[in-house]
Structure formats: structure tokens, C-alpha cells
Write a structure and sequence with these properties.
Chain lengths: 442, 256
């Protein structure tokens, strides 16, 4: 039985702004890959995707072929002594943790959701709250198997140019069949953390600098609806693994689900403001150190399946930039001022300092500096205009945007943000492409 | 992983048609419980990949056998005995393989009709009977076959498949009756719409589509609990009750 491509009008990225037609195949076994990619060509390029947790259009290929890799979800090996683990590209972080956590191991780093695949984690060289301590996911990858559309499959690892193009390579250098990486030891599956409120951007930078040496995990929530002397007020949460707790994995199923799209009145600037200030109150009240399981700490949003539908049928944009250390303070102030003035206050705004770890991939997003991540409900022109204003600030601060979150930046901003993109282009498989790549490589 | 060899398995389980999505989901539950598994299917490479997965997930022993289950059904008693020996005992046998085919082709091509009947009924019952005989003797264990809601009423779009799967369910019901005094269980699990690559051509979504993982849980549980005919998920019992009750003069006007 050979897998075939079927037309689909429902394939979307996490932001759900673009709804386009794709031809989708869902292989279940590695031996199907060769046949599926044999028809890909520069005129009819394809793309592999995972759990489609990227927000914009880097995981879309409208009118083209998509290989949904989530059916390749087998574990290949796991050495409980050394922590070396090998898994097919469609295995999710969630599944991997079911195996790792009870054995006293953990993912070297993880994004804010456990519903990402190994392939997606490599292709965006994802980062987590422990970036300043652990670097990106790619830093722990020891080997991976890559299929090119000319039919050649090869294993590559650190040192191979194709490996460093594939880590952070947005799925454009080939189809990843499996990934081998080093897990890290954990003393328990609980973290011990504390919340520290800050009243403005400047306080954030002081506190973050002080916490980063003492805590493995740090990130801050920021209120984007308040200006003046409270511009950029928020809470910095920091945590370390608890030394004495037990070893239990998370529950696999989300506790609640969003069954339908929220009506458009559900999220307006008033509710956003209420949402942010309630969170501010609640968090501020959690005074003193606390202990909790990794699940609510690392994956608060995963508790509600399909939370992206909260933003209504028109979907939403994410905006995530990183600014270098010397421009970060002023740049973040400018960005927040612009957002407050627009009245389109982001519901979720996150600030985090990246460490100085050298990037693993030619196109890895994280670099030393400060990253700000925002959500904006899609309100058409007004939202695009706001993001264009933010782009200017990012560009003049010498920063760049995260392709995993982007669905609209200009080729110029992309190219100035990723100076190695030309070198990367040499490694792109001519039979693969995405909506994102067609736009930014023009 | 040296210690695991010494572990005693929670259950010793044979899975026929181990590479199907439902079989894989079922096997993973057993693996996490620490079972010993015998995986049977045609494709050796794929079986190896699946065996690695199940070992990594906690199965204490994973064996594979490359067998064409339709062709080898006459040897069912002998093969079942061999597998029992390799596992060191036999607790559960799952008969999961099957062949959907198309009604259109079956209508004009005797080979297609024969294959649908043989895969879903006549060879399947050979394996079930072979397993049941072992269990009857040991007075312990269960045999679980995958039937289908398509077996509840003949419909123009898939009556060849439906009749075979319906026959299989009747067989299991009878087997359960005959095994009742021994304490051995026989169950037919009847899934409704399952979201697998096999059904990718169809319009999906909506509450009636279940994931293979969800069906796998029901199949696993059926080895220990519940009656001889189990709908998966349970809502299909009601749906099929209604569908069976619709009078033919109404039903014949539909395109179902
Ligand atoms: C709630 C939430 C929080 C998040 N937090 C973070 C965070 O803290 N840090 C962070 O870095 N990211 C974060 N992200 C983004 C997310 O980690 C990335 O978008 C990730 O790449 C998604 O993985 P995926 O499996 O869904 O891949 P997809 O979105 O499906 O695809 C992503 C890319 O990977 C490629 N790809 C996927 N599989 C393969 C394969 N087998 N072979 C080749 N290419 C492949 C695709 O072509 C595409 O370019 C977050 C996302 C969400 C929804």
C-alpha cells in the first residue's frame, strides 16, 4: 500500500491566518519517504512539516505538496545509562518526555509547548527558558538522517556543513527521517522557582542579569497595555530543578479544549488589559519560592488544547525578535511604547535574555541579547501596520525576527537579520520550498 | 538495559497485523506495561522499526515473525504454538489485520471479492480458533478480533467488507459463548471511523472520527473487560442501533 497525496483545504499553521490548499501525504514508515519525494522539483516543490506549531508561513507550501511527518513517530533507541536517544522525526517532545522523565532524563531544552516534533525542533533550532544555560536544541543533536529530493539519504552530524545548514534550516535542506540527541539528567520532575515583579523595562534588565547565573530557567511576562512609568512592568519567573522530588511524566491529554473559534468580541483591548492585569495580580501574590511539576511550569498553554482558536476565525500573528545586548534596553522600550500607543496590546508578551552560546545552525534564530515575543489578534491593516513599525525598530537595533513565528516580513529585513542566508542558500534542496522561503529569498 | 532480560513480562501477547495504525497503538500500551510481544506482519523492515520502538517504550521482550497471514492461515495451530513457546506463554491474541478493498472492484473482480472475504473473515477465524484452542486448554487468556460497524448492516457502498467483518463478529460472539465455562474471553471490537492514512481520501473531522490511539485503548481494555461485542468508541452502539432499525424502504433511498 503506497501513501498518496490528498488535497486538503484545512491545513493551517498555528496562527491560522493563511488558509490555503495543499496536497498532503501522511507516511507512517521511513521507507515511504523516497517515493513521496521523487516527484518534487523546482517547479513543483514540496515541504515536510511536523505538528504545525509554527505560527506563520514557514510550514506552508500553498498549492504544493506537504509531507506530514507525524506518522513517523517511533522511538529508535534510548540508552538509560548515557541519555543518548534516537527518535523518528515525527516523535513529539510530549511523547519523548513520557519516556525520558520517569527514567530521570529530560529534553536538553524545550519550547513553551510540548507539541512539537523532533523534525520541527531541529528545523527551527528551538530555544527554551534555559537558553542561557543549555543553548538551543541543535546543540544537543549528535546525528540526524536527511533525505534529499534527488533520492540520496545521508547521516550528518556536527562538523558536516549540511548538518549546520539543516539545524535552523526551516525544512529546506531535506526531509529529516530521525534525530539522535543527548538528553540531560534531572534530579526530579519538579522545579523550584520564584516570581520577581519588576515595575519597568529597566528593572527587568537588572533583575534578569542577576538571576541568570543562579537559575537554569528564566523568562518574564510583560504587560503590554500600560505605559508611562510602568512601561514594561511584569514578572520574571526563574527556576531550577528541585533536588528531592519524584520522577513522574505529565498527563498526555490536555485538561480542557477549545471546541470552537472564539467570537471576535472575546478578545478586544479591554479584555487583553484585564487579562494582563489579572495575571499581574495573581503572579505577584505568589510571593516566595514555590515548587511545581514541570508541566504547568514549562507548558502553561498546553493545558488548553487548541488555545489558538481563542483568537477567532481570522487567526493571529506572533511577533518575536531578538535584539543584541548593546541595543536591547532602548530597543525594548521603543517596541513597548509603540505597542502601548497602538492600543493593540498583545495578550501574551514574553521577555527573555539569550546567552552567548555560539549558534549551531547557519540560520539559528537565537543570538546573544534579549528576545521579545508577542501575540496580535489579526485585525487586518492595523495589525500589519503596527508590525511594520516594530520591524523598523528591530532593523535599526540590528536585530532579527524568528521565522517560526513569522508570516509577513520583507526579504530585506530577513536578509539583514540573517547575514549567512546566502551561504545557507547553497544548501537548500531545489525540490523543497515554503511560502516563507519564496518571500524572503526573493 | 541488561536488567530487563530478567524481568517477567506483565502479559504475553501476539498481535497479527502488527503494522496497522490500530495495532501499533495497542502494542504501545502493552509495551508501556512491560509486556512480551510477538509482532506478526509481512514487512520485515517495518517490523524491525516497530520492535525497536516497543522495546524502547518498555516491552520486556519483542519477537517478530514475517508471515502472510492470509496465505498461512492453514498453519495457524502450528504457528500459534510456536509463538507461544517463543513468548514463554500466551495471554492475549489480537487479530487486527484486514483488507478494506473497494466494493466497486469486488463487484466485477472475483479475486478482489475473494481477498476481502478471506482477509476479513475466513482466514481471520482460523487464527482466532487456533488461539482459542490453546487458551481453552490453559483455561486462561483472551482472543480479540477487530470487526467493524460496517458489519451491522449491509450497505451498497461496502457490503463485501461489511459482510466479512459482520461474520467475524458473529464468530467471536459464538466463540465467547463456547469459551464461557473456561473463563477465556473472546471479543469483537467494532470501530467506527478511524483517522488513519488508509482513510485519508475521505472528508474527516467531526466528533465521529477517532484516533488510532483512542481505538487502541479500547482494544487493550477489551482483553480484560467487557462483553463479546464492543463498539469503539461506545457511541457507535447507539448509532448502529438506529441504522439497523431504519426500514429498507427508507434505507434504500439513501446512498450510504
Ligand atoms: C505555544 C507555543 C510556544 C512556543 N514556544 C517556543 C519557544 O519557547 N521557543 C521556540 O524556539 N519556539 C517556540 N514555539 C515555536 C515552535 O517550537 C516551533 O515552531 C517548532 O518548530 C514547531 O515544531 P513543529 O513540529 O510543529 O513543526 P512545524 O511547525 O510543522 O514545522 C516547522 C518547520 O520544521 C520543518 N520540518 C518539520 N518536520 C520536518 C522534517 N521531518 N524534516 C524536515 N523539516 C521539517 C518544516 O518544514 C518547518 O519549516 C512555540 C510554539 C507554540 C505554539
Amino acid at each position: 500500500m503506497s501513501t498518496r497525496f490528498h488535497p486538503s483545504d484545512t491545513l493551517a499553521s498555528w496562527g491560522r491566518v493563511v488558509k490555503a490548499r495543499h496536497l498532503v501525504a501522511r507516511p507512517r514508515f521511513p521507507d515511504e519517504i523516497g517515493e513521496l519525494i521523487s516527484g518534487f522539483s523546482p517547479d513543483a516543490p514540496g515541504l515536510a512539516v511536523g505538528l504545525r506549531r509554527s505560527y506563520g508561513d514557514s510550514n506552508l507550501n500553498p498549492e504544493g505538496h506537504i509531507i506530514d511527518m507525524t506518522g513517523l513517530d517511533r522511538m529508535i533507541s534510548f540508552d538509560r545509562e548515557t541519555g543518548l536517544i534516537c527518535a523518528e522525526a515525527g516523535v513529539s517532545f510530549s511523547q519523548a518526555l513520557q519516556l525520558l522523565a520517569p527514567a530521570g532524563w529530560f529534553l536538553p531544552t524545550s519550547p513553551g509547548t510540548r507539541f512539537v516534533t523532533m523534525g520541527g525542533a531541529v528545523a527551527n533550532d528551538i530555544h527554551g527558558k534555559n537558553h542561557h544555560a543549555a543553548g538551543t536544541f541543535g546543540a544537543s543533536v549528535t546525528r540526524l538522517k536527511l533525505w534529499r529530493t534527488d533520492g540520496v539519504a545521508q547521516e550528518v552530524g556536527p562538523g558536516d556543513p549540511l548538518f549546520h545548514a539543516t539545524v535552523g534550516g526551516l525544512g529546506l535542506t531535506g526531509i529529516i527521517e530521525w534525530v539522535e540527541f543527548r538528553a540531560v539528567r534531572i534530579p526530579s520532575t519538579e522545579v523550584e522557582g520564584e516570581d520577581t515583579p519588576f515595575e519597568n523595562v529597566s528593572e527587568y534588565f537588572d533583575i534578569a542579569a542577576e538571576k541568570k547565573d543562579r537559575y537554569e530557567h528564566t523568562m518574564a511576562w510583560v504587560d503590554c497595555a500600560t505605559g508611562g512609568s510602568h512601561l514594561g512592568r511584569g514578572i520574571l519567573s526563574s527556576a531550577n530543578w528541585y533536588q528531592h522530588g519524584g520522577l513522574t511524566a505529565h498527563r498526555e491529554e490536555p485538561r480542557r479544549k477549545m471546541p470552537i473559534d472564539a467570537p471576535s468580541f472575546a478578545i478586544n483591548s479591554l479584555t487583553v488589559r484585564a487579562f494582563n492585569s489579572i495575571r499581574h495580580e495573581l503572579k505577584t501574590m505568589r510571593a516566595g519560592p514555590y515548587r511545581q511539576h514541570y508541566e504547568p511550569f514549562l507548558y502553561p498553554l498546553d493545558a488548553i488544547g487548541g488555545w489558538n482558536r481563542l483568537y477567532g476565525a481570522r487567526g493571529f500573528y506572533q511577533y518575536q525578535c531578538v535584539l543584541p545586548p548593546d541595543t536591547a534596553r532602548d530597543g525594548v522600550v521603543e517596541l513597548l511604547k509603540t505597542i502601548v500607543a497602538s492600543g493593540q496590546g498583545s495578550t501574551l508578551a514574553v521577555l527573555k535574555d539569550f546567552g552567548p552560546n555560539p549558534p549551531v545552525g547557519l540560520m539559528s534564530f537565537p543570538r546573544e541579547g534579549t528576545t521579545l515575543a508577542l501575540d496580535f489578534r489579526n485585525q487586518g491593516e492595523a495589525t500589519l501596520k503596527l508590525m511594520a513599525d516594530l520591524d523598523q525598530i528591530v532593523a535599526s537595533a540590528g536585530g532579527r525576527l524568528y521565522p517560526a513565528k513569522d508570516g509577513r516580513i520583507s526579504a530585506a529585513l530577513f536578509q539583514s537579520g540573517f547575514p549567512k542566508w546566502q551561504e545557507f542558500r547553497e544548501h537548500v534542496d531545489p525540490g523543497l520550498s515554503s511560502a516563507f522561503w519564496r518571500r524572503v529569498s526573493a | 538495559m541488561t536488567g530487563s532480560l530478567a524481568k517477567t513480562p506483565s502479559n504475553r501477547v501476539v498481535i497479527l497485523g502488527a503494522l496497522s495504525a490500530i495495532a501499533m497503538a495497542t502494542a504501545r500500551i502493552y509495551a508501556a506495561e512491560g509486556a512480551a510481544l510477538m509482532l506478526v506482519a509481512r514487512n520485515a523492515d517495518r517490523l524491525k522499526g516497530l520492535a525497536d520502538d516497543l522495546r524502547t517504550r518498555g516491552a520486556v521482550q519483542v519477537e517478530t515473525a514475517v508471515v502472510d497471514l492470509e496465505a498461512a492461515a492453514a498453519d495457524a495451530p502450528a504457528l500459534m504454538a510456536v509463538w507461544k513457546t517463543r513468548l514463554g506463554g500466551l495471554d492475549h491474541v489480537h487479530v487486527i489485520y484486514g483488507y478494506l478493498g473497494t466494493q466497486e472492484k469486488a463487484t466485477s473482480d472475483p479475486a478482489e471479492l475473494a481477498r476481502i472475504t478471506s482477509s476479513n473473515y475466513s482466514t481471520a477465524v482460523q487464527w482466532c480458533e487456533a488461539a482459542a484452542n490453546i487458551m481453552r486448554a490453559q483455561k486462561r487468556g483472551s482472543v480479540i478480533a477487530i470487526s467493524s460497524v460496517a458489519g451491522d448492516r449491509g450497505r451498497q457502498s461496502n457490503y463485501a467488507y461489511g459482510a466479512a467483518k459482520g461474520g467475524l463478529a458473529l464468530y467471536m460472539q459464538g466463540l465467547a459463548h463456547s469459551l464461557a465455562p473456561t473463563g477465556v474471553r473472546a471479543v469483537a471490537v467494532k470501530p467506527g471511523f478511524v483517522d488513519t492514512p488508509m482513510t485519508d481520501g475521505l472528508k474527516k473531522g467531526g466528533p465521529l472520527w477517532a484516533s488510532p490511539e483512542k481505538i487502541g485503548k479500547i482494544v487493550r481494555r477489551a482483553a480484560d473487560k467487557g462483553g463479546p461485542v464492543q463498539y469503539a468508541p461506545g457511541i457507535w452502539r447507539m448509532i448502529m442501533l438506529v441504522i439497523r432499525t431504519v426500514p429498507s424502504f427508507v434505507f434504500h433511498k439513501t446512498k450510504l
